[in-house]
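To the wet lab folks,

You asked to see what we're planning to order before we commit. Fair enough. Below is the target structure as C-alpha cells, and below that is the sequence we designed to fit it. If anything looks off to you, flag it before the synthesis order goes out.
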C-alpha cells in the first residue's frame, strides 16, 4: 500500500491496515472471493506430547561425518523441508549406534515439535527383547490412547 508523503494516511480510495501485537497468520488481499482456509493440525493439547528421548550422551565426540549424513536425511529434494523417511543405523554391538542416534535426535528435536518416541528394543541387553506389540502399546499410550482402547493384536495396534 502506498501512503501520502506528508501524513502517512492512505491515498484516496485506498484502505489502511494495521497489525500490532502478535498473530499466527495474516492474509492481506485486495478482494477475496470464497473462503480462506488455514490447514493445520488441531490445537487440542489435551493429549500428551511425547518426549521419550533418554538424556543426551554426555561427552559425545567425533562422528561428525555420520552426524552430517543424518542431517542430510532431513532435507527434501528442494532442500527446504523435512522429508518423511525411515533410516537404520547398523553396526556391531558396542559400536555406539544408540549413542549416535540419541545425540543426533537431541540436536534436531526442535524440528519435531509434535514430540519424539523412543523404545529400547533390548537387542543386545540381557533379558528378553521387546516385542512389536509391547513397543506399539508403549507408543500408543505415549500418544494418549487409553490402555483400554489399545487393540490387543499387533496388526490393529499398528493400524491405529
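Sequence we intend to order:
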Amino acid at each position: 500500500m502506498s501512503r501520502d508523503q506528508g501524513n502517512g494516511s492512505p491515498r484516496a480510495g485506498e484502505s489502511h491496515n494495521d497489525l500490532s501485537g502478535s498473530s499466527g497468520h495474516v492474509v492481506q488481499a485486495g478482494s477475496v472471493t470464497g473462503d480462506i482456509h488455514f490447514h493445520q493440525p488441531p490445537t487440542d493439547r489435551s493429549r500428551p506430547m511425547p518426549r521419550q528421548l533418554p538424556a543426551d550422551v554426555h561427552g559425545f565426540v567425533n562422528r561428525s561425518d555420520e552426524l552430517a549424513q543424518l542431517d542430510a536425511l532431513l532435507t527434501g529434494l528442494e532442500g527446504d523441508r523435512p522429508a518423511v523417511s525411515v533410516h537404520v543405523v547398523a553396526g556391531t554391538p558396542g559400536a555406539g549406534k544408540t549413542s549416535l542416534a540419541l545425540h543426533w535426535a537431541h540436536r534436531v528435536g526442535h524440528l519435531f515439535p509434535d514430540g519424539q518416541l523412543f523404545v529400547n528394543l533390548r537387542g543386545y541387553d540381557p533379558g528378553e527383547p521387546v516385542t512389536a506389540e509391547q513397543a506399539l502399546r508403549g507408543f500408543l499410550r505415549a500418544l494418549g490412547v487409553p490402555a483400554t482402547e489399545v487393540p490387543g493384536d499387533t496388526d490393529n495396534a499398528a493400524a491405529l
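Structural context that might help your review: Confidence is low (pLDDT under 50) at residues 1-5. Residues 97-108 form the longest helix (12 residues).

Thanks,
Computational group
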